[in-house]
């Protein structure tokens, strides 16, 4: 396909959507496209120099006459400038609001015929879509885009139910960079963390928000730990972390629950783990599950959102209802007691990432969309 000039906007510091947008930008650059990140700060995963990746910072001045700093207007204005200065073929924005709305405004300001692709990641729909003050803006952002994608079928359906857009929505699943997420030997690190040979390791990674149900993970661990020598690694930081630490302290197994805080090298940490837990009440996809699976760690997740599109129950993990810590613990104990089954789940996890969420497969799906919407020269 022809090489395109693509503007990408995301929240550069926010979890999965920022990770996906940045990884996609890097992969597209490696395939010869010219990438222009138009974001409020340097995306945190952009940790290497690429000759064809450019960063256009959106600066927002906080004038005392304004009650709120005008981020959305500053972004739209910057988008318009970059569209014109760099002769962009399209904008790919992550989140309907504010980014799709800003893209529509930016295109209008530029007076140029660029395409707009919007990817929905979940929080913009499942949380904000319920806020009647914002549904009109979300619908506007979606309808003004040339192509809208959602990261799971579940999110696609939810968006149609909640927002009733006039636009069709395509599912394009998330992917992982296999060069970073692959199975590694975790023995040395296990020793460094004083994890003994007979212990199994459960892991959870999140931003410790209420929707992630971290208390359910600790509760599940306590039930597992009663039956099996094990450790729980809790990775990340956020509003519920303090309460989670108090909860952990009050259990008889406080020393076996390790809070590791925010971590960069997740693939190294997954090398120590046997089973990943994601017990959220809302989850459009569950990128952290996919990252763990690529490292050979099967998952137990809840029956909501896109999780059942990632975990195939009984093959590469298990699905439980939200809050059902008994079922989660039963499945974990069953797997921990049956090394052969755990090994077959590990292999199935790696296989399903390769078959269904391979980076080249997903990047090619985006390229086919770009080809349809890119400016016609
Ligand atoms: O889960 C979060 O709190 C972060 C959020 C985000 O906006 O970055 O993640 C969303 O996008 C990820 C990437 O597509 C998905 O893997 C997450 O499931 C989704 N989170 C929710 O739907 C709650």
UniProtKB/TrEMBL annotation:
Domain Glycosyl transferase family: 188-350
InterPro entries, alphabetized: Glyco_trans_1 (IPR001296), Glyco_trans_4-like_N (IPR028098), Glycosyltransferase_grp1 (IPR050194), Thiol_BshA (IPR023881)
Highest taxon in the source lineage: Bacteria
Annotated SUPFAM superfamilies: UDP-Glycosyltransferase/glycogen phosphorylase
GO BP terms, alphabetized: bacillithiol biosynthetic process
GO MF, any single term: glycosyltransferase activity
Glycosyltransferase subfamily 4-like N-terminal domain sequence ranges: 14-178
NCBIfam families: thiol_BshA
Protein's name in the database: N-acetyl-alpha-D-glucosaminyl L-malate synthase BshA
Biological source species: Kurthia sibirica
Source species taxonomy: Bacteria, Bacillati, Bacillota, Bacilli, Bacillales
